[in-house]
Amino acid sequence: MTDLLENLYNAFDPSQPLPAGDPVYVDCREVRGDGEIQVDLGKEMLLSKRETYHLYGGHRGAGKSTELFRLKQYLEQNNFYVVYFAADEEDVDSEDTQYTDILLACTRHLLEDLKDSANPRPLLNWLESRWQELKDLALTELTFDGLSAEAKISQYGKLTANLRAVPTLRQQIRQKINPHTVTLLKALNQFITEAKQNLPAGCTKLAVIADNLDRIVPVIQESNQTNHEEIFLDRSEQLKGLKCHIVLAGRQR
Predict the structure, then answer these.
(1) What is the Cα–Cα distance from 101 to 18, expressed in whole angstroms?
(2) pLDDT class of 39 with cuts at 50, 70, 90
(3) How many angstroms separate the CA atoms of 176 and 198, rounded?
(4) What does the pLDDT read at residue 177?
(5) Are 213 and 87 in contact (CB under 8 A)?
(6) Using an 8 Å Cβ cutoff, are 153 and 124 in contact?
(7) Is 82 strand, coil or helix?
(8) Do residues 236 and 182 make contact, with C-beta atoms less than 8 angstroms apart?
């Protein structure tokens, strides 16, 4: 009996979202509300002729990631190419996150996922023009001269990895990137525009889903605003400026 109870208990790990189509999924709309992610978000993204921007909110443990996996499957079944990432796993420290961290995370995942669909040159040129002041923060002695495109792309990964893992470098990286976020977005949009014309067979639209942003801890900044206000309000227009559909998973207030 003990083994049976242990197996049963461990078969349901509340910290892990269910993959789309999992047979143990339970439709909780009757008690949680009538919202249906495939209708409320999916249909709008599918039918809209312009890019859409969504903040998908809910309390911790309410099943947002499970629903976002269902949205991802629905979009992929309807000719979307979806770039999904759980931000807290590789890109941000949930105890200390700012807008710049999320922008770099989006850049890295789009670049890595779509490097075969578009020329990464605009983004590589942006990084190369600032490499002298950033390379020490990426903890590398590499110069861009002679590096392959793949090796250059990996330098974005080093920056986001250090943002998450090296607190002593975090603020320095932000201070170097923050004045140039507009030009970074411009380069990223050039890359996205070309990538959308060369998506894998059958795909006609592009979406980014950034999950687990609800785990970001509110921190009061020098402006007396929280980082949540900076990310989701003050800088929302920049994120909405990306030339693709965006879904951010945020905290329910």
Answers:
(1) 27
(2) confident
(3) 32
(4) 92
(5) yes
(6) yes
(7) strand
(8) no
| CA separation, residue 100 to residues 105, 163, 185, 205, 247 (Å) | 9, 10, 11, 25, 17
Predicted structure pTM score: 0.85
pLDDT tens per residue across span 42-56:
899 999 999 999 988
Give Cα separations from 246 to 6, 9, 201, 234 (angstroms): 40, 36, 21, 17
Structure tokens at 150: 């793949």
Closest to 105 in 3D by CA, of 229, 228, 246, 234: 246
Report how far residue 44's alpha carbon sits from residue 42's, in angstroms, rounded to the nearest whole number.
5
Angle between helices 149-165 and 167-177 (to 10 degrees): 120
Residue tagged 């807008």 (tokens): 99
pLDDT at 135 over 60: yes
The tokens of 231 are what? 């990310």
CB 120 within 8 A of CB 149: yes
